[in-house]
Structures are given as structure tokens and as C-alpha cells.
TrEMBL record:
Organism superkingdom: Bacteria
Stored Pfam families: Lys_Orn_oxgnase
Taxon lineage: Bacteria, Pseudomonadati, Pseudomonadota, Betaproteobacteria, Neisseriales
The protein, known as: Lysine 6-monooxygenase
Similarity comment: family membership: Belongs to the lysine N(6)-hydroxylase/L-ornithine N(5)-oxygenase family.
Cofactor: FAD
PANTHER family linked to this entry: L-ORNITHINE N(5)-MONOOXYGENASE (PTHR42802:SF1), MONOOXYGENASE (PTHR42802)
Family matches, as Gene3D superfamilies: FAD/NAD(P)-binding domain (3.50.50.60)
Amino acid sequence: MERMKNNSVQVYDLIGIGLGPFNLGLAALADNVDGLNTLFIEQSSEFNWHPGLMLDSATLQVPFLADLVSLADPTSKYSFFNYLHNHNRLYKFYFYENFFILRKEYNHYCQWVASQLQNICFSTKVTNISIADNDSEGKIYHVEIHDIETGQREIYKGRHIALGVGTKPHIPSSLKIPDNLPVYHSADFVNYASELADKNNICVVGSGQSAGEIVLELLNRNPIKDDKPHINWITRSGGFFPMEYSKLGLEHFSPDYMSYFYTLSENTRQDIIGCQDMMYKGISKQTIADIFDALYRLTIANSQQPLTMLANTSLDSVGKSISDNMLLLDVHNCLSQTKFQLKADALILATGYRSADLSILNPLASLLKQDSKKNYVLNADFSLKISAEKVGKIFMQNNSLHSHGVGSPDLGLGAYRNSVIINTICNRMVYKTARKTVFQSFGVQNEFCY
């Protein structure tokens, strides 16, 4: 959008920082609220969601109803259904008969929504947040920005802030990887895939969805070139397991469970999170089935199996073999403690993501409460606990696993969280946030006690 004039004078009701699906959904829902003045700031030049993993056949792991707005406002013009209608794909989708839409189409849908919104600034980096002057409604946040294209610096003023800075690729600090080696993170796979075309031996580390999708892509790419394993797939986990996807298990990704989880003690929440990995860290059953089917097809007539899968196996270090110029991987079996080595032409680390840098909050650190694990403490409405008086809210998008539970990063709860945020800053029920949305009763609820 064109940069707004007189930003030193104008005070926004809400300023969003970062534009992933969650803040984009918030921008879309806010656009429909009369009198609500918002601005969303993104340093990239356009919306693009995980472009390095935009594989042709990759799908979302949630149904299409987990779009930006539908679970808050099914009548919104920014719904996925309306996107299909506008692109003459509604009947095609009807015959497609698949709840899980392709990741490429979801990304294009989000770009379509962003192109219609007038409350978004791309190519703009936030450099600082501070609490400054007052007006009749209280203290105001000053958000300092840097226009990446022009170099211009400005200050935007807002009563509330929504932080949607997302995540960044994570490589375990214990892995000391020398420079200039063919070691990649799964997040950028599409960008370096062509470099793997002449690699005979590739090692993939990790047992989540990204690892599974990459292994499947490699299996489908080229037939085996010699009698060595084409791919070594290793993970510290006990196996290559599917995510929990039973219907009652999915009810943990609901507003009801999120509200219940928030009421538990900090220690109890930490214990529960440690036991719920398979609800969001495994591989989809479809991807596992596709990998198995590919292996079955590639081993007809007892052809050499192109994939070696090693569970309970940890990567300890990465070096380079002087004799043949290959990567030398030191690994060990986590159960037997047996140490051995693998060789590879390339190493792909599907080791997940961590929360992006939140140092932008450092100027406010003395006002923000942290728990025993140094996580920011959140209120039930997803805002940070702030000790200052008469100051607006700072809402956290996604970064609330420790306080609101396993559904925090799930696209299906984005519209609910955004409904809570809008209702909070408007101080009224703009969007309905229903209770009893699932069949289970989490915790003790009197209406279920007889």
C-alpha cells in the first residue's frame, strides 16, 4: 500500500508487526470492523509463506476451513470459498474432493487477500518499540520503522500492538558445522534442490512433516544411480511416526482446550507440552503412505532399496572426508550407544523452527513478566502481562505454546485468536467466540457432572 501521510499525527487502534497467516488474518478481520483503524507492517516485499517448502504436491495439514477468516466469519469476502469463486475454481474444488488444499494454492489465496487490503505496508522494517506520550485514552506506543526501499525512517503511533514475527529455521547449537559444506536446512529446499541433482548420497535428519516431504521428493526425483543407498534418513525419535489425527485427538486444537489449558499451573502446562509431541510434530499418514508406496515401486524385482531409515539415531558432528571429499557424519544409536559413521554428498537438516528474535521487546523488558523458563507471561486474551498503567495491549501471535497449549501454532485457531484480539481492543463482542465447540469436557465442568 502507499505509505500513509502524517503518521506522526495519526494514532492507530492497532499496529501489527510481521505478516504471516495469523496477522494477515487479523488484518482481514479488522478490515470489516467499522471505525477500527489498523496498520500491519512487513519487511518482505510481498506475502510469501514458507516459499522454500513450496513443493508441487505438498498440502496443508489442516482442512481448508482453517483459512484466514472462515472460523470467525464464514460470510467474509476474504474466505477461501470466495477466493475460489473469484478465480472460477469453485466447481473444480468441488470435484477435487479434498479437504487438504495444496500449499501453493493456500499461499496464492493469502496473496489474493493481501492484495485487497489497504492496511498493509510491505518492505518496511520495525526497528524499535517504546511507550511514549499520552492522549485522552492513555499511553501510546511509538513504533519506529525503516522503509527498506527509500531508506526513510518514521514513527507510527498505536494504542495496541500485535506481534506476528513468526519463526526461523533452527539448527541445534551442538552441531558445529564447518563453513562451505553442502549442508542445508529444509526450510530452503526448493531454492537448493537443483544443486542435489548430481548427488548420489544424501542424508536427511529429522522425522517431522518437512523431512517426510523432502524424502518423498528425493525418492520420486531420480532412480538409484549405483548400489549404495541413495538416501540415509535418520532421527533421534523412536520411529517415523504419524501425527495424532483421530477426531477426538483433534479436539485439543479447539478454543475449549486452549481456554482450559490456560487455567493450569505453569509446571503442569510444561509437563503436558512435553507429552504432546505427536499431536503436531509427526508426519501425516498420507505422506508416510506415499513414501512406503514409492519404496514398494522402486524395489520391484528386488531392486536395491534407495532409502535407509535409521530411528533412534543422533547426529553428533559433521566433517569432511579428505580421501573422497564427502561429508563425514558421526552418529550414534541412542539405545545401544553404538557409534558409527555415515558418508554423504549433501546433508539436509529438517530440524524444525524456533520463535523468531523478540529483541524488539527489549526496550520494554523491565515492564514485561517472564516465567521460570524465560517465556513471556501472557494473559488469557493472548496479550503480554505489562506492569505499566494505562498502556495498551501487546498481543502475541503463535508464540503462546507455553500458555495456551498445543493449538497455538495451528492455522485452525488463528481466526479464534484474532476474534479474541479484536473483541478485546474494541471492548465488545465483534466476533462470536463460542464455547462448547467440542464433544469432550476438558477439566471439571459442572454442566457435565451428575
